[in-house]
Amino acid sequence: MCADKNHEKPSILKSILGNKCARCRRGSIYTTKNPYNLKDCMKMPEHCPVCGQKVEVEVGFYYGTGYVSYALSIAVCVASFIAWWVFFGFSLYDNRIYYWIATNAVLLLGMQPLIMRWARTIWMAFFVYYDEDWALARKAA
Ligand SMILES: [Zn+2]
Questions:
Q1: Domain residues for 27?
Q2: In a domain, 9, yes or no
Q3: pLDDT for 9-35, tens place per residue?
Q4: Closest-CA residue to 22 (of 123, 114, 113)
Q5: pTM, 2 dp
Q6: Ligand 1 midpoint to CA 87 (Å)
Q7: N or C: which end of the chain has fewer CB within 10 A?
Q8: Residue 125 C-alpha to ligand 1 middle, in angstroms?
Q9: Ligand 1 mean position to 130 CA, how many Å?
């Protein structure tokens, strides 16, 4: 009986890209939707607004996001390297590699708020699993 949209399981990729709670994949785990609102972009509510899951699962829960953030940054570097290679190429006889380094640095700086938010969302998804009965658990509580 999946006629109701509330009973469909949202995809994990979509919920991570949209910074949704790992348990219900519906509620936002950030108070602001705009990652470039730098003053508030990392502010999180205490509980998921949809299912009530605690967003900071335990004290210092998000310290480990540095590893995820690092991996995401490396992925961005590899992607930009490949894109640069395909569109501009690399050569030993000119400065194209330095242009790539500069472009990549600007790209990483520009993407930092997005990467930091995704790192926390992915970190939460490592430890909190999707619960298809989140609505029932919410009613019982
Ligand atoms: Zn939730």
A1: 14-140
A2: no
A3: 899 999 999 999 999 999 999 999 999
A4: 123
A5: 0.86
A6: 42
A7: N
A8: 11
A9: 9
